[in-house]
Design goal:
Radius of gyration: 15 Å
Protein name: Aromatic-ring-hydroxylating dioxygenase subunit beta
Organism: Paenibacillus sabuli
Shape: globular
Distance between the termini: 22 Å
Low-confidence stretches: none
CATH architecture: Roll
CATH topology: Nuclear Transport Factor 2, Chain: A
Largest sheet: 6 strands, mixed
GO molecular function: dioxygenase activity
Pfam families: Ring_hydroxyl_B (PF00866)
Helix content: 10-25%
Strand order of the largest sheet: 2-1-6-5-4-3
Oligomer: single chain
Number of helices: 3
Number of domains: 1
Number of strands: 6
Strand content: over 45%
Family: Belongs to the bacterial ring-hydroxylating dioxygenase beta subunit family.
Length: 157
């Protein structure tokens, strides 16, 4: 599967709310980061909207799959649009990684209210040994409105 198709598949899983399958796309050392602002500063020295390692991401998914995600009752319906995709391969450490940058627009429908979220997303993808697949080592989501009031941002981007 191409890196481009993989990112479309990730968006499809998000829109279907298939949280278990979506979580399987991440490596055990993954970082899921949504900074306040442009994301140029060290995430450990600045306030973030989200800065999760794999364990914290797994906790979020567990709540979404169970009955503990009160902010998602009823669950949001979303459509993820991905555009202006740029993919670059490079060597990092002992192996190849693929960096993908894209613009996105997420439309959320919840309780008869529609909210739009626009921004830029950066993925670091690593190949799955012995397969024609990918895993996400890092995902950084930079919202256009990342420094503004976001309301109840309780779904996954």
């Amino acid at each position: 599967m191409s890196a481009e198709r993989f990112l479309y598949y990730e968006a499809e899983l998000l829109d279907r709310g298939d949280w278990a399958a979506w979580l399987e796309l991440f490596t055990p050392d993954a970082i899921y980061w949504m900074p306040c602002g442009d994301g140029r500063e060290d995430p450990e020295l600045r306030v973030n909207i989200i800065y999760d390692d794999y364990e914290r991401l797994r906790d979020r998914v567990s709540r979404l799959l169970g009955s503990m995600a009160y902010a998602q009752m009823p669950a949001s319906k979303t459509i993820h649009l991905i555009t202006n995709l740029v993919i670059e391969e490079e060597i990092e450490g002992e192996g190849a990684v693929t960096r993908a940058a894209s613009n996105f627009l997420v439309t959320e429908l919840r309780r008869e209210q529609t909210t739009l979220y626009a921004g830029r997303c950066e993925h670091v993808l690593v190949p799955v040994p012995g397969e024609e697949g990918w895993r996400i080592r890092a995902k950084k989501i930079m919202l256009l409105s990342g420094e503004a009031y976001l309301g109840n941002l309780s779904f996954m981007m």
